[in-house]
Amino acid sequence: MCERILMAHRMGDSQAVVGPVVFVGSWQELAELGDRHPGSPALVDPGFGDLDDPGVTPSIWASVYSWSSTPLIHYARRRSESAPVTDVGHPYTAFLRAGADDDLSTIDETILRCIDVRRVRLLLERLRRCADPFTHRIFHHAVNLAIGSAPVPVVAASLGFEERTLQRHSIARGIPRPHAIISLARIFTVERLAEWSGKPSGSIALSLGFTAKSNYRRLTRRQLGLSPTGIQEHGGAEYMEEVIVRRLAPL
């Protein structure tokens, strides 16, 4: 499993945003590392024991610590029924099963999707309170898929619709068209990860499915009338959060 994580990170797009990979041997060490790097995801086998407490039973330390700043990805080997692993109540952000759905691209995509996920959840909660439920649902799927190109047909399929059906639903409800919602989700994701990583937004855009930095610039100008630099001058990801709320949940 460790080798697969290293390979997925080294060969995938996540290495441009987060890294390097660090391995730890105890929940306490993981918590201390997470405190120093908030928002950085951790792939964990919840059944591993602390170095001073070997065995399959999770450490008490693991269940009492608040993991709100560390997105936990449940990534475990299959175990026999005689040695079950209990879920100690962590708010896992994602789940991977060793030998089942842990191909290198899936590991890489899961890491990308989980970076700084708390900020995404806070925005989704704001929209849940004030936006049309269907708008919230589309944006939720769009932002979840925003680590790739995520064209309208892909987002529609994730919602269980054909593209034309999704378009008709949007028109009937008088909400923004799916393409506009997806574009806002993609810009927000680029700016959020650029801010979190300290990397230029153009470089982040290339890691998130844009074929050229100029394509990202065209998207921001078309949707916002601003260049990526202009977005950052207005507040970056925080500015995008306010734009999204204003456009998707108008008063």
Question: What do you see in this structure?
Answer:
With 251 residues, the protein is mainly alpha-helical. It has two domains: 2-114, Rossmann fold (3-Layer(aba) Sandwich), CATH 3.40.50; 117-248, Arc Repressor Mutant, subunit A (Orthogonal Bundle), CATH 1.10.10. It contains 13 helices and three strands; from the N terminus they run ααβαββαααααααααα. It has helices at 2-11, 27-36, 60-64, 104-114, 117-130, 133-144, 152-159, 163-173, 178-197, 201-207, 213-224, 228-234, 237-248, and strands spanning 42-44, 72-76, 94-97. It has a three-stranded parallel sheet with strand order 1-2-3, covered by helices on one side. α3 links the parallel β1 and β2. α6 (133-144) crosses α7 (152-159). The longest helix has 20 residues, at 178-197. The chain is globular. The model is unreliable at 51-57 and 79-88 (pLDDT under 50).
Summarize the structure.
This protein is mainly α and 251 residues long. It has helices spanning 2-11, 27-36, 60-64, 104-114, 117-130, 133-144, 152-159, 163-173, 178-197, 201-207, 213-224, 228-234, 237-248; strands at residues 42-44, 72-76, 94-97. The chain has 2 domains: 2-114, 3-Layer(aba) Sandwich (Rossmann fold), CATH 3.40.50; 117-248, Arc Repressor Mutant, subunit A (Orthogonal Bundle).
